[in-house]
């Protein structure tokens, strides 16, 4: 166990090593931007899939739609640059909204983000698998299996820790940027030269899928355009990642983070408009079989080495884009756990300086989503953008309040910039929620309030417990009250484990009672005679149980003791077998377990197990250092 | 919880009530024979499915094959009547083989039966669902879901106890016998009258499925005939059920059981040959869409009320046939657990006088099988007969040894009868294993030795533990050695739960140590000053943990105490929060859990939780009476 764990996860790290794990701008771009950048792999396709219902003649609209999303991206990026400077310790939507707008808006933003991190993993991995099955259609049937394997691998990589993650993810990100640049250049060349093999390829592609874009199924309407716009907004997911992760940058953190954000926005915008332009230029039609990127690359390069390189780098960046969420989800869960809104075990870093519980939960939930939706990107997209734009809007609104509260120079200009961001993203949120509602967005609209309610309940519980537990030295009165107690040892048969338990019980209390429960009076008499031979100095009471239950006679006996010594506690001492092999656990301690369960709620009763180490019981795995 | 449990399972029963749950012959036939009788619903079909590969001209062979299986049934029934008289306390294959041939053959027979009980549930329920989807083809897509619901219902019915089971299952068994009798009579009438609408219906049925019986795909060979015979032997499963269940009969148990067995064999043989004859007479061809029984009933009655009554009664008997296993699997598991081959929790009856653990395990495993095989009877049949005939052979061989050891009059004749049974079933076993090996029987051939090995390991473990625990009064030396111990209380913060724990620790030992683990020296100083205010009379040690781990400093501290008092035990006292709602469990006791896990293997260390009942903690469910 220990060795496997070390091999997979690496040696434990000291707390003070956290500082040395800081990221350079180039590495940070890879870790935090893969989500945003990789979304160009499906954003154009999602726009085209909506437009194609209105006929092939509507596809050109993807270019103006892309341009308007890029304009939105510019506004959001400028907005978030301000957030980075204002919140150098990490200005995620949760923090900004909670700090400036109050707890409830903070929880709404936090819930929206938690949901979206899970969706990011599921959507990105599904799209990555689509890139693979575009190149190798024979694998299409193993879509879900491949996706789950990828999720498992990313989860493991992240349990190893953040610096190694950067090393794993840097090369693929730049490989992807380079290969998409190559596609755009080659495609541009083909297009400008005209009358080349590209058109033949396109004609063939179009002929293969007449159903997809034959004629208009629905009339082109503003609603269709808005829905296409809403689908394309999936390209905007992940833009906030850098502002959440400012403390992970090398010093000066804010400056480096803002520069990285600007670069990310420029690269994203260039790739997005390039792909949309080429798709229209080449007359690409979306198909369930082959991704739009794959079709463009095939036209640009033919099915050669370069084509496969593009597919491979696309799959890689998409699968690794999920990594953005693995940095953010556990960090956000930890913040919320420290505020008492999530169980405390999310608050702590594991021995690799990562938040292990959050990482594992994220892996499990996104795996479930992939399995439920059969690994299809398009099916999950309607769930996706609501949460993103909800948290954008709350975060930017919070920033407006932030500037109005400060007296920094230029605060009004800052407020106007963030106000513009909040207004733009808020309007888009309404468009998305409205146009995608019946396509699945309703689920998120229900889920987020539910999550907020659950988070509130957790906090209320922790608050109530803290209030209940609170006590002052004055209340205690300067010293601990002395308590006395009785010990009860249930006896099944007389053996070494029982003797250890009896011995322990005698050390606890001068009033020790042994009890033996049986359905058979003869067996009871036999046990009494046997008991006499040992000289334990402890009286044995035989209890008869017509219902074969061990528990009820035991509780009745404890009740009797309680009546005799009302103020004393009762400790039930049980032998517990510590097995040498894991499966032996199934073979022992069943009675002990049911006694513990039955007595858990009985006030003034403590159940203690005295471990008996069975021969060959292995020593423990050394505790996490 | 308690009320739901009582509603579903009924009130608890006293041990002495067990006798009053005895079954009359008529009820016993329903409880123990539904498996055997219901197998006629698929046995003929399985024979035809093999023969049809050799062309429609080979289908008539199902009649001689059916007759030879009936001859085998006669031999086995006579054999088992002898077993019933020789083992009035229940002569299952496990007991007979273990008693006469030794432990290993007994375990082989036991394993084979355990596997078959699970398969009986899966196959019967799947065939029952097939009867329903034959009548209502629209339900074919919900095959697995319907099957799982039925399994859940049968499991619940059995958790209620055996007498109620008999009441639930008696009516459907006789309804099925009656409705099949009606089909046979009506079919016979149609056939003898000749030139009637039946032939038109058959022609239509044959025309609808030309693929199923068009031409020969494989040549008719001895191998095909043997394989058809092996498939048909699925009709023999469940014949041993009565001999396992002799003690459940009213007195005179053996006599009543033997009579019931004879009646069961006669009814089974009559229905089986009748169905095979009509299938050949009507030219029925097996189809994936509609069962053979359904086709015969359609020809005999047309699609009227009677047709649906037959389908309904077939579905009912098949789904309820699974009940045979629910009587036998837990009983066998209990016998094997009492012999130390299965975990002890299988040995005990629950508060409804049934073996709850065995019933639940059977439900889960058969549900898994149904899900894995997509609810298709035919896919599971090859797994089925190997185990049945393995246990038949071992049981009959054991009986031969039994007679040779006694000096009863007529013992030689008895030995010859059982020897004939053993030889016949042994030969059939070879035929089945050989002809079905590549079709799935290999899985059972691997599984049974694996199970035997596991059972042996369980027993070895229990034996080793018993030897290790054994001690005599002389070894103890007439009195318990006195032990002393130290108590350690980890402190996170000072509150009422901690005070309860400290108080308890002081009552255990005069040497109590409080420790506080922190990564922050300032926080440690603050805690020390705070501690002074309370006057607990217990020294506080602050431990610094650069690795954020609570466990390692705690263990190092215990090591230090151990060196100071090498002979003393160390008790770690922790507060444990008893929550008022189930989900609160997730919010507490995480640190306590990891301390317990880490210290479980440390010798001489006991971890005690002092329960702190959080406000509103609900009282326990009263223990099982």
Can you give a write-up of this model?
2 copies of one chain form a homodimer. Chain A is mainly alpha-helical and 625 residues long. Chain A is built from 24 helices and 5 strands. The first copy, chain A, has 2 domains: 461 residues, Amino acid/polyamine transporter I; 129 residues, Rossmann fold, CATH 3.40.50. A 5-stranded parallel β-sheet of chain A has the order 3-2-1-4-5, with helices on both faces. In chain A, helix 3 packs antiparallel against helix 11, helix 8 crosses helix 15 and helix 9 packs antiparallel against helix 14.
Briefly characterize the structure.
Chain A contains 24 helices and five strands. Chain A has about 625 residues and is mainly α.
Features:
homodimer, 625 residues, mainly alpha, Amino acid/polyamine transporter I, Rossmann fold, 2 domains, five-stranded parallel β-sheet, 24 helices, elongated
């Amino acid at each position: 166990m220990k060795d496997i764990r070390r091999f997979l996860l690496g040696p434990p790290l000291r707390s003070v090593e956290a500082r040395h794990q800081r990221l350079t701008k180039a590495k940070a771009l890879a870790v935090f931007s893969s989500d945003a950048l990789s979304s160009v792999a499906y954003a154009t396709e999602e726009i085209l899939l909506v437009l194609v219902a209105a006929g092939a003649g509507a596809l050109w609209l993807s270019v103006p739609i892309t341009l308007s999303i890029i304009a939105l991206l510019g506004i959001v990026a400028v907005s978030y640059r301000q957030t980075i400077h204002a919140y150098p310790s990490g200005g995620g939507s949760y923090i900004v909204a909670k700090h400036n707008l109050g707890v409830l808006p903070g929880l709404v933003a936090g819930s929206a983000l938690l949901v979206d991190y899970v969706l990011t993993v599921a959507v990105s991995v599904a799209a990555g698998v689509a890139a693979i099955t575009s190149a190798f259609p024979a694998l299409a049937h193993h879509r879900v299996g491949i996706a789950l394997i990828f999720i498992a691998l990313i989860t493991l990589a992240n349990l190893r820790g953040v610096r190694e993650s950067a090393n794993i993810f840097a090369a693929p990100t730049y490989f992807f940027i380079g290969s998409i640049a190559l596609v755009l250049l080659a495609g541009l060349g083909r297009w400008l030269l005209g009358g080349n093999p590209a058109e033949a390829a396109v004609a063939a592609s179009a002929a293969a899928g007449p159903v997809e874009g034959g004629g208009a199924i629905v009339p082109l309407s503003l609603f269709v355009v808005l829905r296409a716009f809403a689908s394309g907004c999936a390209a905007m997911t992940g833009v906030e990642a850098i502002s959440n992760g400012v403390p992970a940058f090398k010093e000066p953190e804010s400056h480096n983070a803002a520069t990285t954000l600007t670069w990310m926005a420029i690269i994203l915008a260039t790739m997005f408009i390039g792909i949309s332009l080429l798709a229209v230029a080449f007359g690409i039609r979306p198909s369930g079989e082959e991704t739009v990127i794959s079709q463009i690359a095939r036209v640009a390069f033919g099915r050669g080495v370069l084509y496969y390189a593009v597919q491979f780098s696309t799959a890689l960046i998409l699968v690794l884009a999920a990594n953005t969420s693995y940095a953010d989800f556990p960090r956000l869960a930890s913040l919320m756990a420290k505020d008492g809104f999530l169980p405390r075990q999310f608050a702590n870093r594991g021995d690799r300086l990562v938040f292990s519980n959050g990482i594992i939960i994220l892996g499990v939930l996104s795996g479930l989503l992939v399995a439920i939706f059969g690994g299809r990107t398009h099916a999950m997209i309607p769930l996706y953008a609501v949460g993103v734009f909800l948290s954008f809007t709350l975060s930017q609104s919070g920033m407006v309040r932030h500037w109005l509260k400060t007296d920094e120079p230029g605060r009004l200009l800052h407020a106007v910039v963030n106000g513009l961001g909040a207004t733009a993203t808020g309007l888009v949120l309404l468009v998305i929620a409205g146009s995608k509602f019946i396509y699945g967005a309703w689920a998120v609209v229900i889920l987020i309030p539910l999550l907020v309610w659950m988070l509130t309940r957790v906090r209320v519980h922790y608050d109530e417990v803290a209030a209940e537990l609170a006590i002052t030295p004055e209340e205690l009165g300067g010293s601990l009250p002395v308590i006395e107690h009785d010990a009860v040892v249930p006896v099944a048969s007389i053996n070494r484990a029982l003797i250890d338990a009896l011995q322990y019980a005698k050390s606890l209390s001068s009033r020790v009672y042994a009890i033996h429960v049986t359905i058979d009076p003869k067996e009871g008499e036999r046990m009494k005679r046997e008991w006499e031979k040992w000289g334990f100095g402890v009286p044995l009471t035989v209890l008869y149980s017509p219902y074969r239950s061990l528990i009820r006679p035991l509780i009745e006996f404890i009740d009797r003791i309680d009546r005799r010594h009302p103020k004393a506690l009762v400790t039930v001492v049980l032998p517990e077998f510590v097995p040498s092999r894991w499966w032996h656990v199934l073979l022992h301690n069943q009675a002990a377990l049911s006694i513990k369960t039955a007595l858990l709620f009985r006030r003034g009763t403590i159940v203690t197990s005295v471990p008996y180490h069975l021969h060959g019981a292995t020593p423990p795995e050394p505790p996490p250092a």
